[in-house]
Amino acid sequence: xxxxxxxYWMHDLWEQYENWWVxxxxxxxxxxxxxxxxxxxxxxVEVFGPNVHAGQAIHVVSRSDQPVSFTVWSPRxxxxxxxxxxxxxxxxxxxxxxxxKIAIGDGALxxxxxxxxxxxxxxxxxxxTPRPPSAPVVIGKxxxxxxxxxxxxxxxxxxxxxIGARSVVTKDVPANTVVxxxxxxxxxxxxxxxxxxxxxxxxGDADGLDRFMKAAYREQLSGNSTLGWLRSKLFPRRGG
Length: 240
Fold this sequence. Notes:
By secondary structure, the protein is α/β, with parallel strands linked by helices. It has helices spanning about 10-25, 200-205, 205-220, 225-235; strands at about 30-35, 40, 45-50, 50-55, 60, 70, 80-85, 90, 95-100, 100-105, 110, 115, 135-140, 145, 150, 155, 160-165, 170, 175-180, 185-190. The N and C termini lie close together (about 10 Å).
């Protein structure tokens, strides 16, 4: 689709519907979920198991072919947990899998099809043990993890670090470091003084951001009509 033909009222109604779905069907599965969550197609997001916490202004973009899952799977006497900070972003296909603990800091950017897990899920010799090896994963603030990367058990990633696409991270990554490869190796160091611009700055004023986005959508969709949208669905044509 080259152009969004929806009139503004349709966009606004759809957004209200997604927000309602989050509150009605998804939020009860979180142990806690902060305010101002923005979850696109929330019916493609799975929260499985206890102790899944998310902070303010979490942003998740899912699709039917790229679901997002937050999964805690562990024995009752040793429950795992997932703790997500404020203003974090998760793209389609992300899997967060915890048997012990995964902590993700404020402003993290988790790109498409990333897997973060704190367990091997099976022992090398004992493939049926209910307690496979595990070790907590800690991801710092303002970390960016690229498409398709894998972060394994026991890893700590420092603040502002960047993990390249398709990287396999099995060892700690210092703050302000760019790593890439399989296994991931340092390719660049960042200036710890920045200047960094983070999602916390963008989402810190939730009401102001909401007003800005509504105004932007009104302007972008201002020339659209309901009849025009129907025409685009029933009789699409090249160029719009």
